[in-house]
């Protein structure tokens, strides 16, 4: 548990939870761990709490929030006529609690500040024990966007929340490093066919094999929709996202594969180009999944390279990605070169975030 004014540890988890519940009941916002990323939590039924979320993270007023519940009965209690759309039932049985957010019709009890006037609301049942305990004890659903300041990489450690929101919130519950490291998958099952609006921790492969999801599509990969494109509700479309101070250069492997040597050569070429263009005292970070980087150095630039998991294990890359970007950024590098992976399983969410973070994409 952190108190941004005076970091302290409380004697027990119990005392930390009690303090968090008290603050949420007083319409405060706090940092909360989830299995995906840290959230900036407030009472989802409180207009005051919700307005504080937007101001604390400097979030555009037209970007709607996810509501977090701790049981199916809590979900039912905030649905119109207490009815969950049947399309979701097989998914909830298999994939909840977890990294799946569903879009459902909005009931009157949900303040329109959460949905930014949309007729639908996004709901998730997180599996992280601290998040679950917190929601259960509050007895009300919790609205929570990722707890970064708007536009920055998402926080996967309590210290990231401290770095971004220091002095702006009274408390952060420290639940350790987030297991997934990328945000939840946002699924719109009200569309026909159902569509993933934002790939995330719950994979396309796991959703698609469930009843009713055979024709599952991924927005922008399988279809585009002019109307969706214009809406800020379509995750990550309208606003700049995941951007550290350093410029991010993404190196994308072709679908039929290339190897780490190609990545090394491409980075060296890009460093040469930057130096020739007059960049001095170049300091670059490299986040890689290939082994060829073990003793990677370059006489034209200072290089800090860091392994971001193995490409064959996309869940490792997802977990290490934001923490790696934030770490290199804190070292004051000018550029962060990142080696992309294939879009299988968690790789789809990884590449979605990296393409948004990148100011330059180099196809290998
Ligand atoms: O893993 C997560 O989802 C984390 C943790 C804290 O739960 N939360 C998170 O929230 O990533 P945020 O606010 O950073 O992203 C929520 C996304 C936004 O891109 C928003 O556009 C989308 O969900 N969203 C919210 N309500 C929606 C709606 N009614 N229709 C479509 N998209 C919606
Ligand atoms: Mg976010």
TrEMBL record:
GO CC annotations, alphabetized: cytoplasm
Q: Which Gene3D superfamilies match?
A: DHBP synthase, Threonylcarbamoyl-AMP synthase, C-terminal domain
**UniProt catalytic activity:** L-threonine + hydrogencarbonate + ATP = L-threonylcarbamoyladenylate + diphosphate + H2O
Primary role: Required for the formation of a threonylcarbamoyl group on adenosine at position 37 (t(6)A37) in tRNAs that read codons beginning with adenine. Likely catalyzes the conversion of L-threonine, HCO(3)(-)/CO(2) and ATP to give threonylcarbamoyl-AMP (TC-AMP) as the acyladenylate intermediate, with the release of diphosphate. Required for normal translation, by ensuring translation fidelity at the level of codon recognition, appropriate translation initiation selection and maintenance of reading frame. Also involved in telomere replication.
Q: Matching PANTHER family, A to Z? A: SUA5, THREONYLCARBAMOYL-AMP SYNTHASE
- Cross-referenced NCBIfam families, in alphabetical order? L-threonylcarbamoyladenylate synthase (TIGR00057)
> Under what name is this protein listed?
Threonylcarbamoyl-AMP synthase
- Originating organism: Umbelopsis vinacea
